[in-house]
Amino acid sequence: MGSQAGGPRATAPGQQLRALFYVLPPGESSFRTVEEVPDYVEKSIPFFIAFIGLEFAVTWVQKRKLSGRINDGISSLSLGILSRLPDVLFRSVDLISYIYVWNNYRLFELPWDSPWTWYLTLLGVDFVYYCFHRISHEVNILWAAHQIHHSSEDYNLFTALRQSILQRYTSWIFNLPMALFIPPSVFAVHLQFNLLYQFWIHTEVITNLGPLEWILNTPSHHRVHHGRNPYCIDKNYGGTLIIWDRIFGTFEAEDAKVVYGLTHPVNSFDPIMLQLRPLTHIWNTFWTTPGFCNKLSVIFKGPGWGPGKPRLGLPEEIPVITGKEVPFNPSVPVYLNCYAVVHFAVLMDLYTELLGTVTMLSQGTILLRIGFIILSLTSFGLLMENRPKAGILEIIRCLVFIGVYKLGYLRSQFSFLGYAYEVLFSLCAAFWGIQITKRITSSKDKHQ
What is the secondary structure of 59-70 as a DSSP string? Predict the structure, then answer.
């Protein structure tokens, strides 16, 4: 497709939809250069929203309840946005390293426009994903990054967007052998397709896909992967295909009702804490574990390892599932849920505008916008936990927005919303000021 180098190629909505299911054929997704490859992930955002809405509707019809919770959904979306922020500043480390090896060390060059190259890359990217995914569960330091994706105790399309900001800085090395012969443009397409395919399998709406269950990774197979039931642990690592699990003995069919999340739940919606706490745990365990070899084992053996235990830990130490597990769900007033949804929608507007105009912005403006996004995501996490200090952070966030927006460093996609945003954030700053004043006054009265 296309024979001249240039900017990213445009994609029709139908093509973008098919990319989401990995059914965009070679003739429509082969490019000579990396620069021509569309950003399929970014262009899929409207489809993510549409499918999440469809999942809500289907779940309501089937079970008379929604497919998720506001606090967990906002947490997953926050982690998804956080994971994509480095791409705003510079090209993906996967592509940078891949292109470097290709330019300097490739052994031979497969034709970029050959269907054989396209299908070989499909298999190669998926096999590498299986290997890295499996190692990410079996090596503690890698699990510290990957566990974020498993930290939700719900299983829905929001969960698919729950990604680690750190994982990409360890996965790139596994792709480098392909750079010895597969063109970067072909790799860049399949890297995105493999990721996009895994979006729609994060659902309980689809039960079984019949014969396709033998070949493809499906919602049923992936539900097992996200389970914390003993029979689910370290199973079904495949991305697009399930054949690797069947070949290497890590396949497990869905059986007993799956309980989702980590074996030891983190009980937090704070996106920064979710990223850093596992690393803190490894750091503390490293220093308290005696013996140099044992210290190395803390880093490079499984997350369940301990002195005197097998590499991956003891299966009998996995907590038993009773069926009475209750997800972390702090009591939050209805108005606070509404507040969080409205402000998250505003943040999505600002984030989307940043993605669309990043090439026209100064580095300082980009960093300022990223800083505000991170501040907002952190504040939302604290609000969803109903933390006492969340109000203080919200006042700071609202005042920062007003100042930065007035100076022109923040912009909405829709210029007519500018005044409405200023009014909204001014009222919210006043609201939180009143709430904090009441709390301080009440506290003083109790101590008198």
Answer: HHHHHSS-SS-H
* Cα-Cα-Cα-Cα dihedral sign, residues 96, 101, 102, 104: positive
C-alpha to C-alpha distance for 182 and 165, rounded to whole angstroms: 27
Residue the block writes with tokens 């909405």: 412
**CA–CA separation, 223 vs 301, rounded Å?**
25
Are the CB atoms for 424 and 339 separated by under 8 Å? no
Is pTM beyond 0.85? Reply is: yes
Contact 175, 94 (CB under 8 A): yes
CA distances from 425 to 251, 344, 416 (A): 50, 13, 16
* Inter-residue contact 303 to 237 (CB < 8 Å): no
> pLDDT per residue over 263-297, tens digit each?
999 999 999 999 999 999 999 999 999 999 999 99
Find the helix or strand (DSSP H, E) in which 382 lies: helix 363-384
How confident is the model over 390-423, as pLDDT tens digits?
A: 999 999 999 999 999 999 899 999 988 989 999 9
One DSSP character per residue, 164-225 reads: -SSTHHHHHHHHGGGGGTS-HHHHHHHHHHHHHHHHHTS-SS----GGGGGTB--HHHHHHH
Look up tokens 């493809």; give the residue: 216
